[in-house]
Amino acid sequence: MKKVKMQTRKPKLSEINELSIAVFICKTSAESELKKYAEELGGKLLSSMRAKGLSRSSIAAAFGAYTNVCVVLVMCQQEISRRLVHDVSAKFKFTEAGNGKGFLLDTDGYMGAKAAFIGE
User: Fold this and answer.
1) pTM score, two decimals?
2) Are strands 66-77 and 44-54 parallel, antiparallel or unpaired?
3) CA 85, 29, 69, 114 torsion: positive or negative?
């Protein structure tokens, strides 16, 4: 599959249909690289926060074994949202257990949300 092409100009407000929020859960060691890569693909960073995830092993979870993870929220245009999640998931090998997850939340938008994407 082809990578998302970076836009050479910012779109006009009328060219933006809907927005999505991409949610990535990754290892803390990959946080800064993931944020940079998602922005290169056309996303806008909303938030990044550290968290503790439970171990996949039920025995380890019983002993309080936690893993350090990071949750990254990225706003993107709906037209590129699936490709963005796919490319980030492929680059950071989310298909391998323990590397992370990525998924989309569709939004109806909120006041001023599209402003981050329009030209100056």
Assistant:
1) 0.73
2) antiparallel
3) negative
At 102 the three-state DSSP class reads: strand
The Cα 77–Cα 83 span in angstroms is 11
104, HSE (Cβ side, Cα atoms, 13 Å): 18
The C-alpha angle 32, 20, 53, rounded to 5 degrees, equals 50
Residue with tokens 């806008």: 44
C-alpha torsion 24→84→119→32, nearest 10? 40
pLDDT tens string, the chain, 120 residues long: the values are 555 555 566 666 555 667 889 999 999 999 999 999 999 999 999 999 988 766 555 565 566 566 778 999 999 888 889 999 999 999 999 999 888 999 999 876 665 566 666 654
